[in-house]
């Protein structure tokens, strides 16, 4: 079986190739995996459309942020041949509104940002008879935890504490699932580079390992080498793993008793959340001397490979010089790694995001479930055929109770009851409203009905008869004709009054004439001809003047706005530098500067940018 993890940095904007923009199925098929876990989808419930939620050959399980629109979010796409037996949103288990969940632990405040989806599958070891194993009840359980861990923003100290609380809940939950007898695959964007070899340019190598996130990874992961982990299984002696699993089973009650303690870890300082041996043993039960119960699949197979990065800065073009970090992982429990891990690779040649996919191959075969779990996107009301039309909100209809949970944590069945009650109340008042509207209609000009109230909203959704359309067109043409006649009459009256005033001021022989154009049509026609000649001459003069003013104005603005000066050349490559703006808050925020146009990289890389830097003139 193939499992892929990829931080996609916006599901609606990621593209595989320029010629394959429209199909998300093309993207999923190109990854060639049974289970595809995507992070940072940046979807909100109102933007989740059917082409994204329902894809032929796949079933999808979403977790969407409840606090901010277009933020965070994860989704797990499973092929129909890998349909899970259970699925759950979040790590706490408190967002589940159905029976087919994975468990129920923890603090729901850590699940509000849509950062985890758990799917549980039946698997059989490769080479065995699937039907026989399933019939005898010998299929094993594999839980896949798709997670997008928070980032510790330096400008927001509270996010560092939130990140550590999330790590703690994540560890407690996956170890609780492991203690129940299921294999566990934890994969996704952990947002922490574990070792120096996983970072292109650490700030201070001496204090690199003191980072709280790295200290958590040290206690969460097994520190054995590849030979120490794989040797027991290769020799046919997995007694150590069995002993470890038995210890986990014996301490399962202890785990469940301590999971709710996560809610007590509020916004505290990072120094208070230390990970020493005593606190780990108290919290997670007895541990072996080699560290945690999980292994880093990539480092297990490639312990000394350098330059194996999964994330690069787009702003600096660092992917061209492979100047990045490895923060996307596939973690397996030790027994699964001993028995089933075949390969783990980084697909750095797959573009479309600032991250690249990470792939794991296991020596297992997935057994599909008969029915999809309730969390499946195809069972959402808007995609399952239960979405009501707008007419349903205007008529009283019996509504069935729905037991699903909305994206805001409100029971949909309560909302349906409220809507049905309001519909029945409106239907009782409808005849009275219709009588009131009929009594208060008035007659307008030319026999046109002028309603004193707004029409019934249902009128806009009903088709008009042919006779009503013709009557309405006739009335519209009559109104347009009357308005046009009135406008012409007002314009002609104004012109006659203006001409009369001019002649009186010039002491010309002026005989007053009627201002009504219907009484003296000859005078109106002659005066109109004179005014037209005057207006034509003034238009010609004005056109010449405006053309000269336009030319002069254009020349003035060209001298005033000459554009930015040409960029300087960087001394390292003799190439034109690029203009940047300081966005970080501080005294230099908003200032512009020039840097080398080449992508960031190590100083010994000739293809990387040089150290040229120059402020622009204020």
Question: Can you count the helices?
Answer: 14
* Sequence stretches where pLDDT stays below 50 over 5 or more residues: 15-21, 233-289, 399-442, 512-519
Major pleated sheet:
7 strands, mixed
Distance between the termini: 60 Å
Mean of residue pLDDT?
Answer: 74
Class inferred from helices and paired strands: alpha+beta
Fraction in helix: 25-40%
Query: Number of DSSP strands?
Result: 20
**Radius of gyration over alpha carbons?**
37 Å
**Shape descriptor:** flat
Q: How much strand?
A: 15-25%
Structure description:
By secondary structure, the protein is of the alpha+beta class. It contains 14 helices and 20 strands. It has helices at residues 24-31, 50-53, 130-135, 157-179, 212-220, 226-234, 239-250, 252-259, 277-284, 297-301, 334-340, 412-439, 466-505, 521-560, and strands at residues 2-7, 35-39, 58-63, 74-79, 86-89, 116-125, 140-148, 183-189, 294-296, 311-312, 324-325, 328-333, 341-346, 358-362, 364-367, 442-443, 449-450, 578-581, 592-595, 613-615. Helix 4 (157-179) packs parallel to helix 5 (212-220) and helix 6 packs across helix 11.
């Amino acid at each position: 079986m193939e499992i892929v993890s990829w931080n996609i940095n916006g599901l609606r904007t990621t593209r595989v190739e320029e010629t394959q923009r429209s199909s998300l199925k093309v993207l999923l098929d190109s990854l060639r995996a049974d289970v595809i876990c995507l992070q940072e989808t940046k979807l909100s419930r109102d933007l989740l459309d059917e082409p994204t939620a329902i894809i032929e050959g796949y079933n999808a399980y979403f977790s969407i942020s409840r606090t901010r629109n277009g933020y965070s979010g994860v989704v797990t796409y499973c092929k129909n041949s890998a349909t899970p037996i259970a699925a759950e949103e979040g790590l706490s288990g408190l967002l589940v509104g159905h029976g087919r969940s994975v468990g129920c632990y923890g603090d729901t405040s850590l699940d509000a940002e849509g950062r985890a989806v758990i799917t549980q599958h039946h698997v059989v070891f490769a080479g065995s008879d699937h039907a026989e194993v399933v019939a005898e009840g010998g299929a094993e359980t594999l839980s896949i935890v798709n997670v997008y861990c928070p980032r510790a923003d330096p400008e927001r100290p509270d996010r560092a504490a939130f990140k550590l609380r999330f790590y703690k809940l994540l560890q407690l939950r996956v170890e609780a699932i492991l203690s129940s007898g299921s294999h566990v695959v934890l994969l996704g964007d952990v947002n922490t580079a574990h070792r120096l070899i996983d970072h292109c340019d650490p700030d201070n190598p001496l204090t690199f390992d003191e980072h709280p996130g790295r200290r958590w990874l040290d206690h969460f992961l097994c520190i054995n080498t590849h030979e120490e982990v794989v040797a027991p299984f290769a020799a046919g002696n997995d007694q150590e793993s069995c002993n470890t699993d038995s210890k986990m089973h014996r301490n399962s009650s202890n785990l469940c008793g301590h999971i709710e303690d996560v809610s007590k870890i509020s916004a505290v300082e990072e120094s208070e959340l230390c990970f020493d041996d005593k606190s780990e043993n108290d919290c997670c039960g007895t541990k072996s001397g080699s560290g945690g119960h999980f292994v880093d699949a990539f480092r297990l197979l490639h312990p000394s490979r350098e330059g194996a990065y999964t994330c690069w800065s787009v702003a600096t073009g660092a992917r061209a010089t492979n100047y990045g970090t490895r923060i996307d992982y596939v973690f397996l429990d030790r027994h699964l790694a001993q028995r089933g891990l075949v390969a783990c690779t980084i697909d750095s040649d797959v573009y479309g995001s600032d991250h690249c996919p990470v792939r794991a191959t296991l020596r297992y075969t997935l057994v599909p479930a008969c029915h999809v779990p309730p969390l499946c996107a195809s069972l959402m009301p808007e995609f399952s055929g239960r979405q009501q039309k707008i007419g349903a909100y205007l008529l009283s209809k019996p509504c069935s109770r729905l037991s699903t949970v909305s994206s805001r944590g409100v029971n949909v069945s309560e909302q349906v009851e409220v809507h049905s009650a309001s519909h029945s109340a409106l239907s009782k008042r409808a005849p009275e409203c219709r009588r009131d509207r009929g009594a208060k209609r008035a007659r307008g000009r030319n026999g046109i009905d002028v309603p004193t109230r707004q029409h019934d909203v249902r009128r806009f959704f009903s088709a008009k008869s042919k006779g009503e359309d013709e009557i309405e067109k006739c009335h519209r043409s009559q109104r347009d004709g009357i308005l046009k006649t009135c406008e012409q009459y007002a314009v002609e009256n104004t012109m006659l009054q203006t001409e009369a005033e001019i002649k009186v001021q010039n002491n010309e022989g002026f005989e007053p004439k009627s201002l009504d154009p219907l009484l003296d049509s000859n005078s109106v026609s002659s005066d109109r001809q004179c005014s037209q000649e005057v207006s034509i001459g003034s238009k010609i003069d004005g056109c010449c003047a405006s053309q000269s003013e336009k030319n002069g104005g254009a020349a003035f603005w060209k001298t005033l706005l000459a554009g930015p000066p040409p960029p300087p050349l960087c001394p390292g490559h003799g190439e034109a530098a690029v203009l940047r703006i300081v966005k970080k808050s501080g005294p230099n925020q908003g200032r512009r500067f020039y840097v080398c146009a080449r992508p960031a990289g190590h100083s010994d890389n000739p293809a990387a940018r040089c150290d040229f830097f120059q402020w622009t003139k204020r």
